[in-house]
Amino acid sequence: MGSKIMDKKLKVGILGATGMVGQRYITLLADHPWFEVVLVAASSRSAGKTYEQAVAGRWKMEGPIPTAVKDLTVLDVDQVDRIADEVDFVFSAVSMSKDEIKKIEEKYAKAEIPVVSNNSAHRWTPDVPMIVPEINPDHSRVIKFQRERLGTKKGFIAVKPNCSIQSYAPALSAWRKFEPTQVIATTYQAISGAGKTFKEAPEILNNVVPFIGGEEEKSEKEPLKIWGRVDDQEKAIIPAVSPVITSQCLRVAVLYGHTAAAFVNFKQNPTKEELIQALESYRGVPQEMKLPSAPKQFIQYLTENDRPQVRFDVNFEKGMGISIGRLRPDKIFDWKFIGLSHNTARGAAGGAILCAELLKAQGYITAD
Predict the structure, then answer these.
(1) Is residue 122 annotated as a catalytic residue, yes or no?
(2) Which residues carry out catalysis (predicted)?
(3) Does a structural domain hold residue 3?
(4) Does residue 5 form part of some domain?
(5) DSSP labels, 30-54
(6) Same domain, yes or no, for 227 and 295?
(7) What is the pTM of this model?
(8) Number of structural domains found in the chain
(9) Is residue 2 situated within a structural domain?
(10) CA angle, corner 159, sides to 154 and 163, nearest 5?
(11) Catalytic residue from among 163, 249, 342, 355
Protein backbone atom coordinates (compact mmCIF):
# COMPACT_ATOMS: atom_id res chain seq x y z
CA MET A 1 0.00 0.00 0.00
CA GLY A 2 1.96 3.05 -1.24
CA SER A 3 1.02 6.68 -0.88
CA LYS A 4 -1.31 7.61 -3.73
CA ILE A 5 -2.19 11.04 -5.03
CA MET A 6 -5.64 11.79 -3.72
CA ASP A 7 -8.31 13.13 -6.03
CA LYS A 8 -9.95 14.88 -3.12
CA LYS A 9 -8.37 15.98 0.12
CA LEU A 10 -9.83 14.87 3.43
CA LYS A 11 -11.56 17.67 5.32
CA VAL A 12 -9.87 18.39 8.65
CA GLY A 13 -10.96 20.31 11.74
CA ILE A 14 -8.53 21.54 14.38
CA LEU A 15 -9.79 21.64 17.96
CA GLY A 16 -7.81 24.08 20.09
CA ALA A 17 -6.66 25.86 16.92
CA THR A 18 -5.63 29.09 18.63
CA GLY A 19 -2.99 27.62 21.02
CA MET A 20 0.66 27.00 20.14
CA VAL A 21 0.17 23.37 19.05
CA GLY A 22 -2.99 24.35 17.13
CA GLN A 23 -0.99 27.03 15.34
CA ARG A 24 1.70 24.47 14.47
CA TYR A 25 -1.01 22.24 12.96
CA ILE A 26 -2.20 25.20 10.86
CA THR A 27 1.29 25.86 9.48
CA LEU A 28 2.22 22.21 8.86
CA LEU A 29 -1.07 21.48 7.07
CA ALA A 30 -0.94 24.59 4.85
CA ASP A 31 0.17 22.68 1.73
CA HIS A 32 -0.59 19.11 2.78
CA PRO A 33 -1.22 16.79 -0.18
CA TRP A 34 -3.87 14.68 1.62
CA PHE A 35 -5.51 16.95 4.19
CA GLU A 36 -7.17 20.36 4.05
CA VAL A 37 -8.07 22.47 7.09
CA VAL A 38 -11.70 23.49 6.55
CA LEU A 39 -12.64 24.26 10.15
CA VAL A 40 -11.04 25.71 13.28
CA ALA A 41 -12.51 25.49 16.77
CA ALA A 42 -11.48 26.80 20.17
CA SER A 43 -13.04 27.91 23.45
CA SER A 44 -16.14 30.09 23.60
CA ARG A 45 -13.84 33.13 24.11
CA SER A 46 -12.62 32.86 20.51
CA ALA A 47 -15.84 31.57 18.92
CA GLY A 48 -17.40 33.88 16.34
CA LYS A 49 -14.15 35.67 15.47
CA THR A 50 -12.16 35.05 12.31
CA TYR A 51 -9.07 32.94 12.94
CA GLU A 52 -6.87 35.97 12.25
CA GLN A 53 -8.79 38.01 14.87
CA ALA A 54 -8.70 35.14 17.39
CA VAL A 55 -4.88 34.84 17.29
CA ALA A 56 -4.18 38.58 16.95
CA GLY A 57 -1.23 39.47 19.19
CA ARG A 58 -0.56 35.81 20.04
CA TRP A 59 0.50 34.19 16.74
CA LYS A 60 3.64 32.30 17.79
CA MET A 61 4.84 30.72 14.56
CA GLU A 62 7.77 32.01 12.50
CA GLY A 63 5.83 32.66 9.27
CA PRO A 64 2.52 34.46 8.68
CA ILE A 65 -0.91 32.89 9.19
CA PRO A 66 -1.66 30.77 6.08
CA THR A 67 -4.08 32.62 3.80
CA ALA A 68 -6.53 29.70 3.53
CA VAL A 69 -7.40 29.80 7.25
CA LYS A 70 -7.21 33.54 8.02
CA ASP A 71 -10.88 34.18 7.38
CA LEU A 72 -12.31 30.93 8.76
CA THR A 73 -14.79 31.65 11.55
CA VAL A 74 -13.73 30.02 14.80
CA LEU A 75 -16.38 27.65 16.16
CA ASP A 76 -16.89 26.62 19.77
CA VAL A 77 -15.40 23.14 20.35
CA ASP A 78 -18.64 22.20 22.10
CA GLN A 79 -20.55 22.46 18.79
CA VAL A 80 -19.84 18.78 18.16
CA ASP A 81 -22.79 18.01 15.87
CA ARG A 82 -22.20 21.01 13.64
CA ILE A 83 -18.47 20.32 13.37
CA ALA A 84 -19.10 16.62 12.71
CA ASP A 85 -21.19 17.57 9.66
CA GLU A 86 -18.32 19.50 8.10
CA VAL A 87 -15.19 17.37 8.57
CA ASP A 88 -13.82 13.88 7.92
CA PHE A 89 -11.68 13.89 11.08
CA VAL A 90 -10.22 16.24 13.69
CA PHE A 91 -6.89 16.96 15.34
CA SER A 92 -7.34 17.70 19.03
CA ALA A 93 -5.07 20.15 20.87
CA VAL A 94 -7.63 21.58 23.28
CA SER A 95 -6.55 23.12 26.57
CA MET A 96 -8.92 21.82 29.26
CA SER A 97 -8.82 19.57 32.31
CA LYS A 98 -8.16 15.88 31.60
CA ASP A 99 -11.75 14.93 32.42
CA GLU A 100 -13.11 17.59 30.08
CA ILE A 101 -10.75 16.49 27.31
CA LYS A 102 -11.76 12.84 27.73
CA LYS A 103 -15.40 13.81 27.54
CA ILE A 104 -15.14 16.08 24.48
CA GLU A 105 -12.90 13.70 22.50
CA GLU A 106 -15.26 10.81 23.19
CA LYS A 107 -18.20 12.99 22.07
CA TYR A 108 -16.51 13.52 18.71
CA ALA A 109 -15.70 9.83 18.35
CA LYS A 110 -19.33 8.94 19.12
CA ALA A 111 -20.41 11.47 16.48
CA GLU A 112 -18.49 9.21 14.03
CA ILE A 113 -15.50 11.55 13.74
CA PRO A 114 -12.01 10.08 14.11
CA VAL A 115 -9.97 12.06 16.64
CA VAL A 116 -6.16 12.22 16.46
CA SER A 117 -5.15 13.81 19.73
CA ASN A 118 -2.11 15.64 20.98
CA ASN A 119 -3.49 15.53 24.54
CA SER A 120 -2.50 13.12 27.30
CA ALA A 121 -6.04 12.49 28.60
CA HIS A 122 -6.63 9.24 26.67
CA ARG A 123 -3.06 7.91 26.58
CA TRP A 124 -3.86 5.30 29.23
CA THR A 125 -7.28 4.32 27.95
CA PRO A 126 -6.48 0.62 27.22
CA ASP A 127 -8.12 0.48 23.76
CA VAL A 128 -6.78 3.85 22.56
CA PRO A 129 -3.63 3.40 20.47
CA MET A 130 -0.69 5.67 21.35
CA ILE A 131 1.29 5.67 18.15
CA VAL A 132 4.76 6.61 16.94
CA PRO A 133 4.25 5.47 13.34
CA GLU A 134 7.81 4.16 12.87
CA ILE A 135 7.65 2.12 16.08
CA ASN A 136 4.18 0.63 16.67
CA PRO A 137 1.97 1.09 13.57
CA ASP A 138 0.27 -2.25 14.30
CA HIS A 139 -1.33 -0.85 17.48
CA SER A 140 -4.00 0.74 15.28
CA ARG A 141 -5.75 -2.63 15.16
CA VAL A 142 -7.00 -2.03 18.73
CA ILE A 143 -9.33 0.56 17.14
CA LYS A 144 -11.80 -2.21 16.22
CA PHE A 145 -12.21 -3.00 19.94
CA GLN A 146 -12.56 0.68 20.82
CA ARG A 147 -15.28 1.06 18.19
CA GLU A 148 -17.12 -1.92 19.71
CA ARG A 149 -17.00 -0.22 23.12
CA LEU A 150 -18.11 3.17 21.78
CA GLY A 151 -20.73 1.71 19.43
CA THR A 152 -19.25 3.50 16.41
CA LYS A 153 -18.53 2.54 12.82
CA LYS A 154 -16.08 5.29 11.89
CA GLY A 155 -15.39 7.24 15.08
CA PHE A 156 -12.42 6.50 17.34
CA ILE A 157 -9.62 8.20 19.28
CA ALA A 158 -5.91 7.76 18.61
CA VAL A 159 -3.17 9.66 20.46
CA LYS A 160 0.48 10.49 20.06
CA PRO A 161 2.80 10.15 23.06
CA ASN A 162 4.48 12.82 25.14
CA CYS A 163 6.88 15.12 23.33
CA SER A 164 9.87 14.52 25.62
CA ILE A 165 10.10 10.74 25.10
CA GLN A 166 10.77 11.27 21.38
CA SER A 167 14.34 12.30 22.21
CA TYR A 168 15.32 8.87 23.59
CA ALA A 169 12.55 6.28 22.96
CA PRO A 170 13.30 6.01 19.19
CA ALA A 171 16.92 5.05 19.97
CA LEU A 172 15.75 2.44 22.48
CA SER A 173 13.29 1.15 19.87
CA ALA A 174 16.12 0.71 17.38
CA TRP A 175 17.97 -1.24 20.10
CA ARG A 176 15.11 -3.51 21.21
CA LYS A 177 16.91 -6.56 19.74
CA PHE A 178 19.73 -5.98 22.26
CA GLU A 179 17.16 -6.14 25.09
CA PRO A 180 17.54 -2.93 27.11
CA THR A 181 16.78 -3.64 30.78
CA GLN A 182 17.34 -0.36 32.66
CA VAL A 183 17.29 3.26 31.51
CA ILE A 184 17.92 6.62 33.15
CA ALA A 185 16.66 9.55 31.05
CA THR A 186 17.04 13.19 32.05
CA THR A 187 15.31 15.58 29.69
CA TYR A 188 16.06 19.27 29.13
CA GLN A 189 12.84 20.62 27.70
CA ALA A 190 12.03 23.70 25.64
CA ILE A 191 9.60 26.36 26.82
CA SER A 192 7.35 25.84 23.78
CA GLY A 193 6.48 22.51 25.43
CA ALA A 194 4.53 24.66 27.88
CA GLY A 195 3.01 26.62 24.98
CA LYS A 196 5.17 29.67 25.70
CA THR A 197 7.64 31.96 23.96
CA PHE A 198 10.48 33.83 25.69
CA LYS A 199 8.32 36.95 25.79
CA GLU A 200 5.70 35.01 27.78
CA ALA A 201 8.21 33.22 30.03
CA PRO A 202 10.81 35.76 31.20
CA GLU A 203 11.34 33.64 34.34
CA ILE A 204 13.22 31.03 32.29
CA LEU A 205 16.00 33.39 31.19
CA ASN A 206 19.26 32.63 33.01
CA ASN A 207 17.42 29.79 34.73
CA VAL A 208 16.67 26.05 34.82
CA VAL A 209 13.40 24.89 36.40
CA PRO A 210 13.77 21.36 37.83
CA PHE A 211 10.09 20.41 37.68
CA ILE A 212 7.46 19.95 34.95
CA GLY A 213 4.17 18.64 36.33
CA GLY A 214 3.38 15.04 35.37
CA GLU A 215 6.29 14.82 32.96
CA GLU A 216 8.43 12.29 34.77
CA GLU A 217 5.62 9.75 35.09
CA LYS A 218 4.86 10.11 31.36
CA SER A 219 8.56 9.74 30.51
CA GLU A 220 8.85 6.53 32.50
CA LYS A 221 5.59 4.83 31.49
CA GLU A 222 4.59 5.90 27.98
CA PRO A 223 7.44 4.10 26.14
CA LEU A 224 6.23 0.84 27.73
CA LYS A 225 2.78 1.24 26.17
CA ILE A 226 4.38 1.96 22.79
CA TRP A 227 6.45 -1.24 23.10
CA GLY A 228 3.42 -3.22 24.30
CA ARG A 229 1.14 -5.55 22.35
CA VAL A 230 -2.51 -5.68 21.32
CA ASP A 231 -4.23 -8.47 23.24
CA ASP A 232 -7.31 -9.77 21.40
CA GLN A 233 -8.82 -11.37 24.51
CA GLU A 234 -8.37 -8.30 26.70
CA LYS A 235 -9.34 -6.07 23.73
CA ALA A 236 -6.60 -3.73 24.89
CA ILE A 237 -2.94 -2.79 24.60
CA ILE A 238 -0.87 -4.55 27.26
CA PRO A 239 2.24 -2.46 28.07
CA ALA A 240 5.72 -4.01 28.00
CA VAL A 241 7.37 -4.59 31.38
CA SER A 242 10.92 -3.67 30.41
CA PRO A 243 13.12 -1.76 30.31
CA VAL A 244 12.59 -0.10 33.67
CA ILE A 245 12.89 3.66 33.08
CA THR A 246 13.55 6.38 35.64
CA SER A 247 13.67 10.03 34.66
CA GLN A 248 14.03 13.65 35.67
CA CYS A 249 12.60 16.48 33.55
CA LEU A 250 13.88 20.05 33.55
CA ARG A 251 12.66 23.18 31.75
CA VAL A 252 15.50 25.11 30.10
CA ALA A 253 15.91 28.38 28.19
CA VAL A 254 15.40 26.94 24.71
CA LEU A 255 12.45 27.76 22.44
CA TYR A 256 12.19 24.50 20.41
CA GLY A 257 13.92 21.18 21.05
CA HIS A 258 13.93 18.62 23.85
CA THR A 259 17.34 17.15 24.69
CA ALA A 260 17.83 13.91 26.65
CA ALA A 261 20.85 12.56 28.50
CA ALA A 262 20.27 8.82 28.74
CA PHE A 263 22.01 5.81 30.27
CA VAL A 264 21.12 2.23 29.34
CA ASN A 265 21.90 -1.35 30.37
CA PHE A 266 21.39 -4.26 27.94
CA LYS A 267 20.87 -7.99 28.38
CA GLN A 268 22.94 -8.55 25.24
CA ASN A 269 26.41 -7.08 24.77
CA PRO A 270 26.24 -4.88 21.66
CA THR A 271 29.29 -3.08 20.29
CA LYS A 272 29.28 0.65 19.56
CA GLU A 273 29.31 -0.13 15.84
CA GLU A 274 26.26 -2.40 16.19
CA LEU A 275 24.36 0.26 18.14
CA ILE A 276 25.12 3.02 15.62
CA GLN A 277 24.27 0.75 12.68
CA ALA A 278 20.94 -0.12 14.33
CA LEU A 279 20.14 3.60 14.68
CA GLU A 280 21.03 4.58 11.13
CA SER A 281 19.29 1.64 9.47
CA TYR A 282 16.09 1.92 11.53
CA ARG A 283 13.11 2.30 9.21
CA GLY A 284 9.39 1.95 9.67
CA VAL A 285 6.11 1.82 7.80
CA PRO A 286 6.09 5.61 7.15
CA GLN A 287 9.38 5.32 5.24
CA GLU A 288 8.25 2.21 3.33
CA MET A 289 4.94 3.85 2.38
CA LYS A 290 6.53 7.25 1.75
CA LEU A 291 3.90 9.02 3.85
CA PRO A 292 3.90 12.78 3.16
CA SER A 293 5.29 13.87 6.55
CA ALA A 294 7.68 10.95 7.03
CA PRO A 295 11.38 11.78 7.33
CA LYS A 296 13.55 9.87 4.86
CA GLN A 297 15.99 9.22 7.70
CA PHE A 298 14.17 8.66 11.00
CA ILE A 299 17.30 8.69 13.21
CA GLN A 300 20.70 10.23 12.44
CA TYR A 301 23.88 9.57 14.42
CA LEU A 302 26.27 12.52 14.78
CA THR A 303 29.95 11.75 15.41
CA GLU A 304 31.10 15.20 16.61
CA ASN A 305 31.78 15.44 20.35
CA ASP A 306 29.53 18.48 20.76
CA ARG A 307 26.44 17.25 18.86
CA PRO A 308 23.49 17.04 18.74
CA GLN A 309 22.86 20.70 19.49
CA VAL A 310 19.50 22.45 19.34
CA ARG A 311 20.98 25.28 17.28
CA PHE A 312 22.23 22.99 14.50
CA ASP A 313 20.13 19.85 14.66
CA VAL A 314 16.58 20.52 15.89
CA ASN A 315 15.23 20.97 12.35
CA PHE A 316 16.72 17.73 11.00
CA GLU A 317 14.26 16.34 8.44
CA LYS A 318 12.01 19.42 8.96
CA GLY A 319 11.88 18.60 12.67
CA MET A 320 10.56 15.07 12.04
CA GLY A 321 13.88 13.27 12.48
CA ILE A 322 15.68 12.32 15.71
CA SER A 323 19.35 13.16 16.35
CA ILE A 324 21.56 10.96 18.56
CA GLY A 325 25.18 11.55 19.56
CA ARG A 326 27.87 11.05 22.20
CA LEU A 327 27.28 7.29 22.42
CA ARG A 328 29.96 5.99 24.75
CA PRO A 329 30.58 3.35 27.42
CA ASP A 330 29.68 4.25 31.00
CA LYS A 331 31.28 3.29 34.33
CA ILE A 332 28.00 2.27 35.95
CA PHE A 333 25.68 1.58 32.98
CA ASP A 334 26.64 -0.16 29.75
CA TRP A 335 26.22 2.87 27.47
CA LYS A 336 25.20 6.54 27.58
CA PHE A 337 24.07 8.90 24.83
CA ILE A 338 22.48 12.27 24.04
CA GLY A 339 19.23 12.56 22.07
CA LEU A 340 17.41 15.52 20.53
CA SER A 341 13.93 15.93 19.04
CA HIS A 342 11.81 18.85 17.88
CA ASN A 343 9.05 19.05 20.47
CA THR A 344 6.31 20.76 18.43
CA ALA A 345 7.10 19.10 15.08
CA ARG A 346 7.86 15.40 15.76
CA GLY A 347 6.81 15.76 19.41
CA ALA A 348 3.41 17.34 18.90
CA ALA A 349 1.58 18.46 15.74
CA GLY A 350 3.93 16.84 13.21
CA GLY A 351 3.84 13.49 15.00
CA ALA A 352 0.03 13.60 15.10
CA ILE A 353 -0.16 14.49 11.38
CA LEU A 354 2.12 11.53 10.55
CA CYS A 355 -0.13 9.36 12.74
CA ALA A 356 -3.20 10.55 10.78
CA GLU A 357 -1.42 9.79 7.49
CA LEU A 358 -0.72 6.26 8.73
CA LEU A 359 -4.35 5.78 9.86
CA LYS A 360 -5.59 7.05 6.50
CA ALA A 361 -3.23 4.70 4.64
CA GLN A 362 -4.42 1.81 6.83
CA GLY A 363 -8.08 2.62 6.05
CA TYR A 364 -9.15 3.87 9.48
CA ILE A 365 -9.67 7.51 8.39
CA THR A 366 -11.82 7.86 5.28
CA ALA A 367 -13.87 10.48 3.47
CA ASP A 368 -17.64 10.56 4.12
Answers:
(1) no
(2) 163 (acyl-thioester intermediate), 258 (proton acceptor)
(3) no
(4) no
(5) TT-SSEEEEEEEE-TTTTTSBHHHH
(6) yes
(7) 0.96
(8) 2
(9) no
(10) 160
(11) 163
